[in-house]
Structure formats: C-alpha cells, structure tokens
Design goal:
Strand 1 and strand 2 form a beta hairpin. This protein has one domain. By secondary structure, the chain is an alpha+beta fold. The chain starts with 9 loop residues before the first strand and ends with a strand. It has 2 helices and 5 strands, in the order E-E-E-H-E-H-E. It has a 5-stranded antiparallel beta sheet with strand order 3-2-1-5-4.
Amino acid sequence: MASNKTPSPFVLHIRFASREDGGLRAWCDKVPNFLLSHKDPQKVHADIVPALQTILSEMYGLEMRIKRLPEIDEAFDQLPFEAHIFDQETYLGTSISS
C-alpha cells in the first residue's frame, strides 16, 4: 500500500545477529517485512540495499535510494560505553526526485 506522504530523508538502523550455523540474520524494526537471513554473511550484506529499496519503494509509492553511513557506525564504536546491544549498520533513505 503506497503512502501519499513523501518521506523526508530518514535513518535506518539495521541490526545483526549471528546464526548457530555461522550465518547471519539482519532486520530493521522500522521496516515491516525486512528480515534477511543466510548461511553466508556476505550474501546478507549484499542484499540489504536492494531489499530496502524494494520494500520502501512499495511502501511509499516512490523510487527510494538507500545509502550506508559507515561514518555514523564508526562514531558509535568510538564511544567509551556500549551504545547498542546488537551489531548494527546505519543507512540513509531518501526518495529520488522525478
């Protein structure tokens, strides 16, 4: 179901958990139906941007661009305390103007 509201740029925190078989699981609480899981962690990472673009484009009825923001994650890693429970990566979502 497409929304009529054009989304402002927004930040998504993708969380990760290891699987018992050595694989990886990824999800985002803000994105319904976004859950990736595979025995090969590299395949999970490779699918994040295309999966988010597809789901969010359908949600908003707009073509979406997703970009990883590693500098945000690096800043969290420099904090003198644990900033989050799960391993996570930060992404920026924006709509693409026609």
